[in-house]
Amino acid sequence: MSSNHGSARHGRGDRPRKGCAAGALGAALALAACSSDLGIPPLPDPDLGGDPGGGDEEQELGFPLYEQGQILARLELGAPAPAEFVLRGNFPVPRGVYPLEAGWSPFAVRDAAGVETPAQTEVVSRYARAADGADVVEVLARVARPAQSAPGDRLTFDVVWSPHPPAEPSVTAEVNALLQAPEALELRTRDVFGHIYTADLLRDERERNAELVVRRDGALARQVRTHESLLSPDPVGAPDGALPHHLGVHAYITTWAGEDFLSLDLRLHNGHDGVDPADPLDDPMGKLYFDALELAVPAGWVVLTAFDNPLFGEPRAEDGRSVVGLVDASTDGTLHMVPPRSQFHRRLVVARAGSEERARATLLEETLGFCRAGNEEGLELFSWWNPSTARYFPQKETLPRLDHQADSYWREGLAESLAVYQAGVAAGTADPSPLLVENLGWAHPWGPTVGYAHGGGEIYLYQGMRPAWAASHEGYRLTQLIHRTMTDRHPTALYDGDGDALTEEDWIYEGPDGPVMPLWMFTIPWLSLGDPFGFTDAPTFQVDAVTASGLEPPYEQLLLDYQHIDNQHLIRYTRSPKVLVWLGNDALARDDLRMQAECARSSFSALPQNDYGNRIPTGMLRLLQDVAERPADGLQIDRGEGWYLDAVAAYFSLADESWRARVLPWFERILVLLEDGQLACNGVLGSTPNNVHFDGDYRLRQSISEAILQNGLWGVRASVFGQRRADLRGRLDAVLAPNLAAMISEQVWNPEENAPATWAVMGPYDVELPSFCDTPPPDAILGGDAYQTWSSFAYGFRLTGDWLFLDRAAEMLGAPLTTAALGTEAYGHIENRAALLSLVQELWE
Predict the structure, then answer these.
(1) What's the domain range around 298?
(2) Dist. CA 33–CA 66, nearest whole Å
(3) What is the tally of structural domains in the chain?
(4) I need a labelling partner for 214 at 20 to 30 A (CA). Which of 491, 551, 638, 785 fits?
(5) What's the pLDDT tens digit per position in 80-99?
(6) Residue 615, by phi and psi: left (phi above 0), alpha (psi -120 to 50) or beta?
(7) Model pTM?
């Protein structure tokens, strides 16, 4: 280590680790000696849920024994306007805590006055092994703020152990009447010929049919997802008839006990996937045009929106109803246009007149609590900052404390950012950046039109730590707003007629030489290679009529120019829904994550795409064939596959057991691919011909890509294999250990940059020639990456105990590893350093 950078372990006080720090000691000796000498407990394996001894894969789960009334977690929020309200909040739990037998809920919520209220408990995510149950739960309880408190005052509520049987949900008479009335919530639009299309958003709930999906169900809240396509009663077909269907709509409807309002989150999509050739109601429609999109509710009910925008209309009375424009008609007389596979969100409440204040508090997430770190009577509270309940994101790492700044610092920054972006969306302006264009009708896209925008902006391994630490509902809402505007520009929607996301299993058939998966997917369908969906066969008579009449919106071409976020940068999209699920159990975001996971699996398939064995060049099958020809010599794999792994592992955490059972073989196949393809001499995975650097002479390893792959695999290790398949986890560890070690090896480390080289030579450009391994050419490294690689040092240390990982991290930082030095405020710094920062805090702060 360079002498001017100090020691990795030179933190507070008098360098307590002197003697345990030097160099790369043997992993077991270094970790055991330093831990023992300093009283530091062995680091828990992040997937074991609080079993620092490593756990016994065959052990029987013991029912957790807590005392009645024992404080287990704590939720904090700013006091909302209503004096009493339904509090909800997420927190992680040890294995076996939930669910309990017979549907009992384990928890109650206690306020500052000692008043306890039974809590409804919902599963957010699950441990890898089904028997271990939930690893993150949501609790809901009706609470009151102190009489002397004012809106905005900080409140805390304790979550205590108090098992109780389930109670039936109760809604007010007004809400119940709304739920039972046909067409009480009716979405409607018109096409170029004036045909009206409608959807009854409550039909599935009334009928309790197969399309209904229940997301919450308890005494305090019931949430269901319905799906409808907007249909016309008029004759269908050219030259001037209606379409078989218009937009599809998912409605996430939440009723709240004792409240005269319901929450209504909507996803509108033009992504029917045509999976059922006998059903025209799931066929793709191509570009869809409409005049306005309106929601009709009974008179006496009010529609409020979470985020205002220029096309959210004023209500008008019509035939005993109140009609609100979710997307008002254009003032210039042109129509709105939704491109194929595009989708957009609207977050609303429908409130009985007089209950607007209470409804608005829920809509604006003022009733959302956040778990807090702390200790009570010797028990460290269940939280993201407790190593024994480290269950955040698929990586399941402990989140770092951000106490080097006051909580108010983080809250004020998040509130200011929300205010600025919310104002931009409300006004439809082309600022602040990255809102680079004015609203394009219903859409206000985030970022530039290209889906591959270069640079590290928004390429974060972790996200949401700031609102989580500061207990900031404004930070949570900022994430909702970013997710909304990102969704506006990310056309990846593919849903069947029931509203379920694309799954490759629905398309696989038996070809002459084995199974065939006929989707040519590269995050979105590559239609020039094949179109089993039917997008290229969509009816065009309405599009032709719009063009002939000059009714295309002026924004049409610019909106069509917006590309989906490609796989190399997919985290720019998935980061927001991950935060919304892990911090708020958001059902709409959960399904958006599933859509990305299904697109990732279909894009990285091990099957051919037609009967002749042809395959997409970006899929897994191509890599399998390459590795079969050149084993143990590296793979042409990079960050895109890393983000695929992250997305699928994230949804694996959230999914039910049937989905997990279907998807586990995909992860197993990838593990075999990595085992067979990893460079035997140095552990590197990605070794790709590069015609830009080094005069195009070599195939190269890129540190950014390896770090993103490592992060994705760390998520697979914790969320997918875990204790479910210890054998697979062990094999993955055998891949990860040398791969992580390569990051700090002489072949990759650039001493001039004090960082892993951005590019390191692995072999000749010609893949038929063997890698260099021990005989690289001179000057075989270029640049240094001190942005994306920080968490890899933490993963390497946790896996191997090798202190050299932390020494290298200190070299790269240019200072001893401390919260103050690592926790700089610039976005991307904390987010990419999170795993290392939390490790440093565990070890010596």
Answers:
(1) 173-363
(2) 34
(3) 1
(4) 491
(5) 999 999 999 999 999 999 99
(6) beta
(7) 0.94
